[in-house]
Amino acid sequence: MTQYLIEVRVKPRPGLLDPQGKAIHHALNSLGWTGVEDVRVGKTIYIDIEAESADEARTSVEEMCRKLLANPVTEDYEVLVVETAEGAAS
Amino acid sequence: MKVAVITFPGSNCDYDLYKAAQQVGGEASFVWHRERGLDGFDAVLLPGGFSYGDYLRPGAIARMSPIMEDVVAFADAGGPVLGICNGFQILCEAGLLPGALVRNDVLKFQSHDVFLKVERADTLFTSAYDEGQVVRIPIAHGDGNYEAERETLEMLEEEERIVFRYVDEHGHAVEEANPNGSWHNIAGIVNEAGNVLGMMPHPERAMEEILGSTDGEGVFRSMARSLSPAAT
């Protein structure tokens, strides 16, 4: 068994109104960053997991996303294997 | 009518619901979220509040509570389930109702009275109202913006599953009357079978004149009437 660090990126689905992103967008504009065209706010979840392989770790976390971590109605997710106990993942 | 008020860590409208059920002659019991079994209950109420501090998403953790398996089975068997505010969010997360409730478009927690139009008076939760009746009931939420896939939203309209809509005092579903950006001013919906209702406004906080409105009583009177035919 190897320990993996998995990063889950949960983000609002395209087309869905993201009021938080909109508010931050306005704030950035008023700070002078007029070139900012869109801001969307998601969340990142870090999971330490033991698994036989990176693929197995990824498969488990994808199931976690479907069951709990993301709401398929409003959110998309991305699963990244960040590193193993031995160092950065390939 | 024997009702179960499910209590999660962070529920804060559980006592209001308990009292509302009693006020219409019902017998209420608190059921802690870690308990199992709903035998002997005629209805299940999921209270408002901030279960698990709204961590991850409102209702996302609560819906994993042990009792929720029984709530789903109870609903699947046709048992009446009413979820208010956080209860509505939990019902959506549990898949008993379609869609999801996301952050209010105004980004601000909304705590004030709203006018609602009773779009359906033929459900077991609304039979004490007249169809088209406008009632005044408080809201108190930060995440009440109803979202769903386009096809789902259209289906809700087609199947007339929108039970309550935010309106102005004349009953018009205008944009200014929408406190959170919900599609088509949706304030409450039922499932296909009609035995599961989720709503963001708080009828249990509009039960007494001294609190400003008694317009919420109809929800509980309707349930009592359907579930204990002897009482009126």
Protein architecture, described:
The complex is a heterodimer of chains A (90) and B (232). By secondary structure, chain A is α+β, with helices and mostly antiparallel strands. Chain A has helices spanning 19-30, 54-69; strands at residues 2-12, 43-51, 75-84, 87-88. Chain A has a four-stranded antiparallel β-sheet. In chain A, a hairpin with a 2-residue loop joins strand 3 and strand 4. Chain A starts with a strand and ends with a strand. Chain B has 232 residues and is of the alpha/beta class. Chain B is 21% helix and 25% strand. Chain B has helices at 14-23, 66-76, 86-93, 150-158, 217-227; strands spanning 2-7, 27-32, 43-46, 81-84, 100-102, 110-118, 134-141, 145-147, 162-167, 186-190, 196-199. A nine-stranded mixed β-sheet of chain B has the order 2-1-3-4-11-10-9-6-7, with helices on both faces. Chain B has a two-stranded antiparallel ribbon with strand order 5-8. The termini of chain B are close together.
Short summary of the structure?
With 90 residues, chain A is α+β, with helices and mostly antiparallel strands. Chain A has helices spanning 19-30, 54-69, and strands at 2-12, 43-51, 75-84, 87-88. Chain A is built from 2 helices and 4 strands; from the N terminus they run E-H-E-H-E-E.
Low-confidence stretches of chain A: none
Beta-strand portion of chain B reads 25-35%
Strand order of the largest sheet of chain A: 2-1-3-4
Query: What characterizes the major β-sheet of chain A?
Result: 4 strands, antiparallel
Provide the succession of SSEs of chain A: EHEHEE
Major beta-sheet overview of chain B: 9 strands, mixed
What shape does the CA trace of chain A take?
elongated
Subunit arrangement of the protein: heterodimer
Tally the helices of chain A: 2
Beta fraction of chain A: 35-45%
What is the largest interface, and how many residues per chain? A-B, 10 and 20 residues
**Helix vs. strand class of chain A:** alpha+beta
